[in-house]
Write a structure and sequence with these properties.
The protein is α/β, with parallel strands linked by helices. Helix content is 50%, strand content 16%. The longest helix has 40 residues. The chain starts with a helix and ends with a strand.
Length: 174
């Protein structure tokens, strides 16, 4: 796999967590030999500023009463669409809240900072890499089709379609 976390620093924005959590996350990534640039924010205004001013690979947030994960997800969707959000909770969420968070776009809801978090981050990076590859391929296909259509329109006598029917009849519809 040629993922970003293997060659460039992984940019992680932590929303609403304490300093100990911040250190634990840095330690976890460091122990996994992942180069990481971690920053944290606490309020909505600073979150919007960070999301708007820089590109992020992953957002980690808590589900706190003052700014819950749904609010963070909404702001992230508006200001940094496509950035995966992982919810880290210091308490167990009920099934309804967890389901709601995942249905509106959270990649996962975890209660511990451990190897599972690394696996989820790697999965998010792989998905984003696949999505970027898909988008690049789609754009290349569109360009190629446009060039082909222009060629076919300008050379109608040279471009044709060959059709072989199941009963072995052959015809040229164009």
């Amino acid at each position: 796999e040629n993922l970003k976390f293997m060659t460039e620093p992984l940019t992680v924005l932590i929303v609403g967590r304490d300093e100990q959590t911040f250190r634990d996350i840095r330690t976890l990534f460091s122990a996994a030999n992942m180069i990481v640039s971690v920053e944290s924010v606490t309020g909505q205004v600073s979150l919007v500023e960070k999301l708007s001013s820089q590109s992020w690979d992953v957002l980690l947030t808590d589900h706190q009463p003052d700014m819950d994960a749904l609010q963070v997800l909404t702001l992230a969707t508006l200001h940094a669409p496509g950035v995966p959000l992982i919810v880290l909770t210091s308490f167990v969420l009920d099934v309804q809240t967890t389901t709601q968070l995942i249905e509106v776009g959270a990649q996962d809801v975890l209660s511990e900072i451990d190897a599972v978090l690394l696996a989820v981050v790697r999965r998010c990076l792989r998905q984003n890499s696949h999505w970027r590859d898909f988008q690049e391929t789609r754009l290349a296909l569109e360009k190629s089709e446009t060039r082909f259509r222009a060629l076919a329109e300008n050379l109608p006598g040279l471009v044709f379609q060959f059709v072989l029917e199941t009963d072995e009849r052959i015809f040229f519809p164009y």
